[in-house]
């Protein structure tokens, strides 16, 4: 069971990698960023597939997208100087609480 959650965390982090990779790939017009993006997509989906063997599908998918969205939003601020303000921090914290809540209320 714990290994499925580790797979899910890895999948979510690689979702953020490919989301950031999309920005660098500029519509798949840059070769290496495009390659990294596609490889990260494959890794993310592979680990998601491993996680949903054990975890409930709805929970796993929500947590996967939540981890990806949270991490991507933070990296957007760090890498691309996207604006950060109280309301954005507040809603990112709500997302984090939701991810943690889903983990602790999952059937498995």
Series of H and E elements: HHHH
Report helical residue fraction: over 70%
> How would a textbook summarize the main sheet?
none
Share in β-strands: under 5%
Give the low-pLDDT segments: none
Give the integer mean of the pLDDT values. 96
Count up the helices: 4
The structural class is mainly alpha
Specify Rg, calculated over alpha carbons: 15 Å
Total E-strand runs? 0
CA-to-CA gap between the ends?
7 Å
Per the principal axes of the C-alpha atoms, what is the gross shape?
Answer: flat
Helices, strands, pairings?
Layout: H1 2-25, H2 31-51, H3 57-80, H4 86-105
Explain this structure:
The chain has 108 residues and is an all-alpha fold. The chain is 82% helix and 0% strand. It has four helices and no strands. Helix 1 (2-25) packs antiparallel against helix 2 (31-51) and helix 1 (2-25) crosses helix 3.
What's the short story on this structure?
With 108 residues, this protein is an all-alpha fold. The chain has helices spanning 2-25, 31-51, 57-80, 86-105.
List keywords for this structure.
108 residues, mainly alpha, 4 helices, flat
């Amino acid at each position: 069971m714990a290994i499925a959650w580790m797979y899910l965390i890895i999948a979510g982090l690689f979702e953020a990698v490919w989301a950031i990779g999309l920005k660098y790939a500029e519509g798949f017009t840059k070769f290496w960023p495009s390659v990294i993006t596609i490889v990260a997509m494959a890794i993310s989906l592979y680990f998601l597939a491993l996680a949903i063997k054990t975890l409930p599908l709805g929970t796993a998918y929500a947590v996967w997208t939540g981890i990806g969205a949270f991490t991507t939003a933070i990296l957007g601020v760090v890498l691309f100087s996207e604006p950060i303000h109280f309301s954005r921090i507040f809603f990112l914290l709500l997302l984090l609480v939701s991810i943690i809540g889903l983990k602790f209320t999952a059937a498995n």
